[in-house]
Amino acid sequence: MYQMISDDNPYETPMMIFPASHYTMGGIWVDYELQTSVKGLFAIGECNFSDHGANRLGASALMQGLADGYFVLPYTMQNYLSDQIKVARSTFDTSHPEFDKAEADVRARIQRLMDIKGTKSPDEIHKRLGHVMWNLVGMGRTLQGLVKAIDEIEEVRKEFYNDLRVVGKADDLNTELEKALRLEDFLVIARMMAIDALNRNESCGAHFREEYQTADGEAARRDDQYMYVSCWKYTGDNVKPILIKEPLNYEAIKVQTRNYKS
Amino acid sequence: MEHNISVNLKIWRQRGPKEKGQFVNYKLDNVSTGSSFLEMLDMLNQQLVERGEEPVVFDSDCREGICGMCSLYINGHPHGPVQGITTCQLHMRKFNDGDTITIEPWRSAAFPVIRDLMVDRNAFDKIQQAGGYVSFNCGGAPDANATPISKEVADTAMDSATCIGCGACVAACKNGSAMLFVSAKVSQFALLPQGQVERKRRARAMVRKMDELGFGNCTNTGACAAECPKNIPLSNIARLNREFINAKCSE
Q: So what's the ipTM on this one?
């Protein structure tokens, strides 16, 4: 596989390797039945936050997809559906005002992006956002870096809304528009990730704040202050999300620090 | 070593399933031989967008050869001229400066073109939904060694399960047959204990769905196996035929 990608035979030339973050911890908040804060909407697999801790290992995603899909959802979704059986089928149609509003909102959102008519493609702006996240909200994070990241994300956001160019039409199969819509969401998520990393003044799992490390350069947790899951409540694209702390209470196990050295 | 080359691209452009398509020529300079084939297309699209033209639509997702989203008929071969890889794993170092590269979508009646190089492969999902799963509750994990499975059988089932459902087999086949895909999906379960309960029903249902969706018949040409990015062997088709006949005879 290495040879296929790099065209070097690793038996003959040393492999070129470097550390990289390949996964982002966390995801959509769900309850123990994997239901999101939107009633009736379930989130399973990698997109939810539920099964991994502050870090995860290879194949955790596969485990989560299988566990959620095979063992959890078939049982928990029934709890929700059992109440729904009382709702008359005849009320399931698109004449509700909520449907009209949802459709109008999506159309307005698309039109807004089409009307910017700037000079930068979604890919160009996406790459700029990616560099900010890679450099400042990546494997090693610092207080100054995160403050800077939030400012830079705001600049990318301004560039997006002032200089985006979506070629093609809105009512057509348009991959550029699809990229632009995704990128609009990434901007919200990127900002939230930076705010979250800034809030957590400790190193824990995949979150490594350079200020908080042991003499050996290992992650230094601060359990007295951060024994909680940070849940960020969305209140609007331009508004700071609200932190809801879910305390971590371990009854059966003693909280320790993983040690690879002894 | 990496260096830059110029390539002439001959790309199939088609606005929609019912519209007439045509080849359009593009010249692309400064393509690094270290870049992947899809990165080269990204580069072309960036230039098209800068000129205010619509980019070439193509499918891709993981770009590491495991998701089955990328397609493309490159110089007459599904997933390009290199054996055993998907298009996203193809690198520009396999091409020379000044080469003309012809890029077409999968061409098969069962895979209509959506736009340019993107085709509708829902037919595969429908075949899978007809029986490509194990639907009964098999209870808790059994004790280790309670059901011995030989290494040979486990390996063959695993090899069949490596099919990513990209559709290269259908695109490569002169008859547009989906037999290699269906046989891989049937084999991975037919070989293992958990697949036994629904074994006959699965073979019948998946073959019936395949026939219904307009895929052609198999004439044992073997182009599918030769072009398969996961090297799924033709022996799967022999197994499917056996499974199907067995299932039909016991109806």
A: 0.86
